[in-house]
Amino acid sequence: MTVRLRPWRDDDADAVAAACGDPAIVRYLPFLPQPYTRDDALEFFRRKPEDLAVTDAETDRVLGAVGSTPRGDGIAEVGYWVAPWARRQGVASAALERFSARLFEQGLRRLYLMTALTNGASQRVAVAGGYLREGVARGAARDGDGTWQDMVVWARTAGDPPGPSARALPDLPGGELTDGVVALRPLTEEDGPSTYEMRSRPDVSGRSVVGTPMDPAVVTRQCAESVSKWLAGQRAEMTIRDAADGTYLGEIALFYFEPLLREAMIGYSLTPEARGKGCASRAARLVTAWGFEIGMARMTAGTAPDNVASQRVLEAAGYHREGLQRSRLPGPDGTRIDNVQFAKLRLAAT
Predict the structure, then answer these.
(1) What is the Cα–Cα distance from 285 to 299, expressed in whole angstroms?
(2) Superfamily assignment of 3-157 in CATH?
């Protein structure tokens, strides 16, 4: 879809009011009045005349909004939203790129925007627009319930190349990895209940390095923030599913701890119903092959010495035992436990 940026008109007010009542916009723009009315839209047009409507270049239908706020000499904060009827069509990315170019032409030298950790769609827009992730601003904005939340800071300077910005961990080809028996798909907020149910089992949480918060809302938020970690190049978290019917079988992740060495680690957990059927080995083979395809030279994994089942999973996936690392892993009640280190090299990927 081709978009056009133009000033707001009074006859846009009904469309803006309809869009700003959408749950996603309400969630991530909690400062908007609710219910959002036509009069609220007209007040917005008067208060922020420098902001622009994003419209369909052919029909002139309102698709969203883009604007900026001065934040110092040559610096501005950029913001945008897209109406529910225009999403997943590249509208925000095209509008941000065009609007950013316009601001640079006006003499600005640095543009930045902030996105909630859970707002993966907005973070993808930033990447597509050539913005680079600079870090996390702690307690930088209020959430819908009034609490302060962390925000991801993205920025672009006048000398930066056009987007998209480079990523260390690309998306999965076609949105998933599959061998016809299991399918690996990115972890999402909707996976929260299933993930919490699995992680909270003693036989899973007892084997976890990081542990599981005993709060389903926290686990659901962690799932929602997964896309942020993926785009940051930190880790690629996926669900393991039955390729035939999509049943949730567990989770697996690639942790990119050593980018300079091109080395990543994998970790996985299964539901009780999925165990003993080769699902973990299949998932490990799939994510390991993908790791090599995106440039990893070495893939590693580890298990506790008594976790024989997990060691057999890694051996079936082509990993080789390298040795014992003493007291590497955190254990229960502040203790430390040994780690059996496994690895697979890119040269041996086949």
Answers:
(1) 11
(2) Gcn5-related N-acetyltransferase (GNAT) (3.40.630.30)
